[in-house]
Structures are given as C-alpha cells and as structure tokens.
Design brief:
heterodimer; A: alpha/beta; 11-stranded mixed sheet; 3-stranded antiparallel sheet; 16 strands; 38% helix; globular; B: little secondary structure; flat; oxidoreductase activity (chain A); iron (chain A); 4Fe4S-binding_SPASM_dom (chain A)
Chain lengths: 453, 46
C-alpha cells in the first residue's frame, strides 16, 4: 500500500500533525519525524539516514525512527483498516429519527431557500393533528429496540403551526411513557414569530434549538427578506437573544448559511459571538451550481483560507472562553462515535426520514418535493424498499471516492443531497463539499492540539 | 517519547466490540441540516 493511504499528515497552526486514519489516533510530531514519515514505508532506516543526513544527525533520525516503530507496533500508526467492509447496517430497517415538516409555509423569503421559500414546490400547507400524531406513532412502531427517538420540528417555518408542535410534544410524552421510549424534541426556526409563550415552551421541551440567522446585518438582510421585501435581522436578533438568555445551559445553535456573497463568513460567526451567542454554526449553502450565490470550485481556495483564518481566531477566543463552540470545529477524539456510526453516516432514508404535512415520507428534508424520492407515507409505511436500500448502502465502503479518502471516518461519506444536487447520484460525493470538510477536520484537530499542548 | 506526543491514543477499532447500538443522535438533527459531520457527535454508549 502506498504511503499516505494509512496516515494523513499536515501542518497547521504551528503544529505538525499526524492522523492514523484507521485507528483514529492523532500525534503531534517534531520536524524530524514529519520528514521521516515521507519515506518510512518505502525505505530502510539506513536509507532514510542517508536521505536526511543534511538536515538532522544520525542519532536523532534513529531515535525518531524507533518512536515511529513503537507506535506502529501498538497499532497507532500505519494501522490497517478493520475488516468491516461488509458491515451490516440497519438490516431491521429501524427508524429512529424524523424531521417533521409541520408547515410548508414560511414568513421569510430567503433567496437561497432549498424549500422554495417554504412550500417545497408543492403549495403552502400546514400539517394537521391527525398526520402529526400518526407520524409519532409510526416512529414508535418502527423504532425496534432503540430507546432514544428524535423528532425535529421543521418547515418551512414551524412556528407558523406552533399549536400543533405543542400538541405533538404532549402526545409524544404520553407515547413514551406507554412504550418505555424517550423522545428528544428539537426545533429549527427563523424566530420571526417568537414570543414569550413560545420561548418558554421551546426552552422547557426542546433538547436543542437551531436558530437561523446569517451573521452580520447586511449579509443576513441581503438573503433573508420578509414577505414585503425588507431585511429580517432587526426583527429576529432581539428574539434570539431573549431565547438564549432564558435557555440556561441547554443546547442551542445559532446557524447561518454562507454563500458566494460572504466568503468571509468567519466575520459572521464572530458577529454572532460578539452578540453574545456561544454555540455557532455557519453552513455552506446547498443549491444547484448555476445560482449566482452558489459555492463553486472557483471559490474553494478562498473558503479554505477562511476556515484556516477562523481557526486562528477560534484558538484565541477559546483560550479565554471555553464555552465558545463552532459546530464544525468540534471534535472529540476520545469519546466520539463508534466506527460503525462513522462508516454509515447520517442515516437518511434508512433510520432517518422526513415527513411532509400530508404525511409523505422522504429520505430527508433536502429531498422533500422531489417525487422520485417519495419513499412512502406514515399511514401505510415505506413502499419504495429499493430506494431505502440505495440509501442504506450509501456508505464510505461503497462510495468509490471515499474509499481512499483520509477523512472518511469523520465526514462519513458526506451529505446525500449535496451529492445528488451536484452529480445526480447519491454515491458520488460533492467534491467542493469534501474539500471544505477536510479543511474543517484539519482545523478542528489543530485547534485541539493547540489547546491541549 | 521525545519526538512524538500522542494527543489521542484511543483506537477506533476497539469500538467495533461494543459499537453500533444506534442510540446516538442523528447527525443532521444537531445543527447543520446540510453538511453531514459525524466525527463530532457524542457516543451514547460509554
């Protein structure tokens, strides 16, 4: 096997970092080790001494070589992949998470909305109680031995149907008691309709809340407009501040989307921080490549530099404020997910599905509205077993481009919708997205290295 | 070690023994809703 396929090394934020791809071990190394690794697999120790003798003395090279050897023997460097190619994933077709589209309607007109300004190309509609209850029952019935079930109230804008959200939370609590399960409710909202009552309910019942805003006022107001065409920033910001102030230590994320119009998106993340928000996410826009705001290959270099720049700011802030979190720079090298989870990814179309206001099932929220991806409905169950199988098998072992990628156990194959939007094939990853994800992982590891070292 | 500092020596392969319980959060539900990052999720089975 060629060098590079079992380890990945990079220099970032003043650290020489080596990732052992298959074990997940991470090492900080000095310059001599970093150089030796260029030749370690192909050359003998004597040959390496000869090659590097102008740079380091013989004793140092031998010493460093021995340390590499020890880690190799311990299975923490150059380790081989476990034999899990034929990993069996969700053979029982258990469903444990639903994205409930309680409103296919929205009170904003965001230019980049993948949901066609809220209606998912299917006309404006609200989910009724009958469909909502049936969705929770469907989840319960299909959850097998899973105890933790997840329901995200999504839209459109879910606050436009908030009475239903309340009723479903109460119904869910009844169901979980009867069935010895636990629902984790979450909500994703633009905040326009937040008031004291909704804030209190959300803070009491939602395990996590995702608050949509795009960072700086001018950036937000350029893309996220009200129905009458005005900026939404000044309506939303005070409401989000109030919600977060009252939320205590429960989870939330303030989540922005960045596009080709704000490639300096770290400024938006920092703007959130300066407004008092600590848990932050900025996501690359998902769209067809021909839109003027789309992120295209020509933007990639700037985006990667921006992530690096932000990682430096992040280290500085993190040293003063440990509560500051950027979703994509979080990485837990010791307590993270198991290999099985890392191999199979997001679970869309298999253990995770989206439900429309009419009760139709789709592999995830991103596919809603594309008839070819209608997988069934909550009343009669999954009808398109073949589609479910296709999603079930879309993992890092079956995607050709993921097989040789060092980041495969961190991104887990990437977003199916991104792949489909770009290549019309869920098995072919969205390359620009892959490069961004790789940079984010490098940044995340280098941040950890700086904070721990 | 003089030249190498291991900042994480845990081995993903060890998680094959107990892993795959499926109780952890669906990654897309946590914040992104678009970009599938699994490596930063928490394990529920430790």
């Amino acid at each position: 096997m060629a060098i590079g396929e079992r380890i990945h090394k990079f220099i970032l934020n003043n650290k020489n970092i080596v990732l052992d791809i298959n074990s997940g071990a991470v090492h900080l190394v000095d310059d001599v080790v970093y150089h030796i690794l260029d030749y370690y697999e192909a050359k003998s120790v004597d040959e390496i001494i000869e090659l590097l003798k102008g740079k380091y003395d013989q004793k140092t090279i031998s010493e460093a070589y021995k340390e590499i050897k020890i880690l190799e023997k311990e299975g923490l460097l150059y380790s081989y992949e476990s034999n899990i190619k034929d990993i069996r994933y969700n053979e029982d077709n258990i469903i444990k998470a639903l994205c409930l589209h309680v409103a296919h309607d929205c009170n904003l007109r965001c230019k980049y909305c993948f949901a066609s300004q809220g209606d998912f190309k299917g006309g404006r509609s609200l989910m009724n109680l009958n469909v909502g209850k049936r969705a929770l029952e469907f989840l319960m019935e299909n959850s097998g031995n899973r105890k933790n079930l997840e329901v995200d109230f999504f839209g459109g804008e879910p606050l436009m149907n908030f009475d239903l959200v309340k009723e479903l939370v109460h119904y869910g609590r009844q169901l979980e008691e009867k069935n010895n399960k636990h629902f984790r409710f979450t909500i994703t909202t633009n905040g326009v309709l937040l008031d004291d009552d909704k804030i209190n309910f959300i803070n009491e019942h939602m395990d996590n809340v995702v608050l949509s805003l795009d960072g700086r006022r001018e950036i937000n107001d350029n893309m996220r407009k009200t129905v009458s065409g005005r900026g939404s920033y000044d309506i939303i910001l005070p409401k989000f501040k109030e919600l977060v102030n009252k939320r205590g230590d429960k989870d939330y994320y303030i989540r922005g989307t960045f596009t080709s119009f704000n490639l300096d998106f770290s400024e938006d993340a920092l703007d959130f921080y300066h407004n008092g928000f600590k848990k932050i996410s900025m996501e690359p826009v998902v769209t067809e490549p021909d839109m003027d705001y789309a992120l295209r290959e020509e933007h990639l270099e700037t985006i990667l530099e921006e992530y690096e720049k932000f990682s430096k700011d992040y280290i500085e802030i993190k040293r003063q404020d440990k509560d500051f979190l950027f979703f994509h720079f979080m990485i837990d090298l010791k307590q993270g997910p198991c290999l099985a989870k890392r191999a199979v990814g997001c679970g869309a179309g298999s253990e995770y599905m989206a439900v429309t206001p009419q009760g139709d099932l789709y592999p995830c929220h991103q596919f809603v509205g594309d008839e070819n991806f209608r997988i069934g409905d909550v009343f009669t169950g999954v009808k398109n077993g073949q589609l479910r199988q296709e999603f079930n098998k879309a993992n890092v072992f079956n995607k050709e481009e993921c097989r040789s990628c060092w980041a495969r156990f961190y991104c887990s194959g990437g977003c199916h919708a991104n792949a489909y939007n770009t290549n019309k094939d869920i098995m072919k990853p969205y390359k620009t997205g892959c490069e961004m994800e790789k940079k984010r992982i490098e940044c995340a590891i280098s941040i950890l290295a700086n904070l721990e070292d | 070690m003089k030249h190498i500092k291991t900042i994480s020596g845990s081995n993903l392969k060890d998680t094959l023994v107990k892993g795959g319980c499926g109780e952890c959060q669906t990654s897309c539900q946590s914040a992104c809703k678009t970009s599938c990052t699994v490596g930063n999720q928490k394990c529920e089975n430790r």
